[in-house]
Amino acid sequence: MKPEWSCLKDVTILDVSQLLPGPHAASLLAQLGADVIKIENPDTGDTSRLLGPAVFAQFNRGKRSVALDLKSPEGKAAFLDLLQRADAVIEGFRPGVMQRLGLGYDTLAEVNPAIVLCSISGFGQTGPLAADAGHDLNYLALSGYWAVPVQVHDKVSRPRARISDFAASGYAALSLSVAIMSARQNGKGQHLDVSILDAVTSWTVQGAWAARGIPADRLIDSPTVMPENDLFETLDGRHLAMGILENKFWVNLCEVLGDEYPALRDPRFATRPQRQKHKQEVNALMVQVFAGKTLAEWGDRFAGTDVPFSPVLGAAELFEDAQLIARDMVRHHPEEGLISVRFPVKFSAGLPDAPGAVPALGAHTGSVLKA
Questions:
Q1: CB count, 10 Å around CB of 53?
Q2: Which tens digits make up the pLDDT trace of 254-281?
Q3: How far apart are the first and last CA of the chain?
Q4: Could you count the other beta carbons within 10 Å of the beta carbon of residue 135?
Q5: What 8-state DSSP symbol labels residue 180?
Q6: Which tens digits make up the pLDDT trace of 146-184?
Q7: Host H or E run for residue 241
Q8: What Rg do the C-alpha atoms of the chain give, in angstroms?
Q9: In this structure, is the dihedral angle defined by the CA atoms of residues 200, 201, 205 and 206, taken in order, positive or negative?
Q10: How many CA atoms lie less than 13 Å away from 95 in the CB half-sphere?
């Protein structure tokens, strides 16, 4: 039986954000034991409620919902009352909105000097784009995400996850944990300015730096383009991932397939620098090789070998995957027909599941305000 402990069990977060970055940051803290009170507009609630129950549940399960109109004197007064017993506020408005509501950092700090205000916005609180609209794709475009060439036959395509939003939410949660700890030590809070663009740029800028100065028609020359570290189509129209980075894995690949495909043992391809000089040939060879068998056949061929091979799983296959099941990442809620994802770090002392309920709009208004 897991011990009932949590590093944030006595931390209270007021979440006035919507959609993904702020709510996800708050949900990470909730999974670590924080009490997250979600402040929602009484009429509309979080915009993600309009996108379907699964979307709202993904980022707000386990929170308590309080319906307050922050534009009204009564709603503002109730919020400031809650603030006195809170550790942090997470907001995701454009810069200036909290000030116009009369809830800027200086005002909050007067009520509770130890409060931490975490403002998550697209471009941050400063700079020429600070007031501009944007969503995940905009931030990726401006971060140099597509300026990092990664494939021999590269193309601009939409990512399958909201990468910049998740980057920002992770940094926000980490920074909040540190800032709350600091405030408890010295009694003084602070304002955290989280820019979604800054967050994802911190992931992309090194790759873009490596590609600078390379002509657009020669991006294949970038060191980030590795011809054997790629996705390849199989005979049955499926795909596999070959994660060959270190040269030892190329050697292992040649040991497994070299007898059947002797071209892999071409001396020109023996080391990474050599393969980088012959990227087109190496990639074309691997495309040809992997197109010759089905994904299942390749899975059998690489089973038990030290080659970084992975099948590209479909949605149904993902939830039947032995590794995912063994790690117990997915929590099922059959009464809702939904799932949730457990905190993706295993604590040796155990980490209890956060409360599983998805709050109805304003479900906890009475109980929270009377507390």
A1: 13
A2: 999 999 999 999 999 999 999 999 999 9
A3: 32
A4: 14
A5: H
A6: 999 999 999 899 999 999 999 999 999 999 999 999 999
A7: strand 239-243
A8: 25
A9: negative
A10: 18
